[in-house]
Amino acid sequence: MAIKTWIAGVALAAVAGIGGFIYLNAGTSPAPASTFVLLDGSQQTTADLHGKVTLVNFWATSCTTCVAEMPEIIATYRKYQPQGFETIAVAMSYDPPSYVVNFAQSRQLPFKVAIDNTGMVAKQWGDVQLTPSTFIVNKRGEIVKRYVGAPDFAELHKLIEKLLAEA
Description:
This protein is an alpha/beta fold. 41% of the residues lie in helices and 23% in strands. It has helices at residues 2-25, 64-80, 97-106, 120-124, 153-165, and strands spanning 29-30, 35-37, 43-45, 53-59, 85-91, 112-115, 133-137, 142-148. Helix 2 (64-80) links the parallel strand 4 and strand 5 (85-91). It is globular and about 40 Å long.
């Protein structure tokens, strides 16, 4: 009897996991109302991003995958920014602000970098805990794709091009 219960639990967890994967990767959901505190102390809200295709990347200086993908994120930003593409890199709450500032300056990050000191922004975006986690938001302010781990940048570029072409 215990084995049947265990198997039923595993099956239920698998269905829930697949459902969550489909939910995160299909359709759209509104981007949460968030305020990003940028390195220069200014603020940007998700409402400010309406009309732009935006990549929101949750990362940390201690995350090797995050550091490894950053040149691709820079190249993606530079390629599409003239067409109305925006990028916000959100450093996780556990990342020391001095490390984030040093990283942004030494790598000459060309896009907005925010520090999520309280962890509130990560909570608002689905309780992000794994880095890197990247969200693609369309011009209407809807999340159309979430990547956990480094994205397939060829696929990401096709998605960005499609979203930029939308009215």
